[in-house]
């Protein structure tokens, strides 16, 4: 009897020690873009079907920070490198719904944060003219530097974040990669939004 009780106590103690180790990689912060509407958000709202589990958790596209030097691998950027969200990396033949925008336009970017966290920055990258919208996103398809950055210097944002930045000159269909860099973890959140100039 005593050995069974000790065995149960040991199992509970082991679980208590293991749980923080399992959760160490989780930032505790989650968010997605609603403007430009991200692929994850379009799946959440049902505007796009056959999305897999991202439709229930558009806020969970989290991967290593440090983009473009580090972060998710090429072809896996829109899903943050997470296999369960691979549908976000599928270009669907270039048929994702795209927001109409204009070169040089001041565009308001909006995030919904389901669990705000200390933030380094919000950064926005865009594809180069001549990129292939029917292929998964790669670093070579993007301008290497963000066209717009909002620094937060470790501050914790509210549950919604909006800021307005000027779009670069482009023509045709493009993709905007929004990156929310978390200040006190090794992770960032990645959101891909399709646009047409």
UniProtKB/TrEMBL annotation:
Signal peptide: 1-29
Annotated Pfam families: LPMO_10 (PF03067)
CDD domains: LPMO_AA10
Keywords: Signal
Sequence ranges assigned to domain Chitin-binding type-4 in this UniProt record: 30-195
Name of the protein described by the UniProt record: Chitin-binding protein
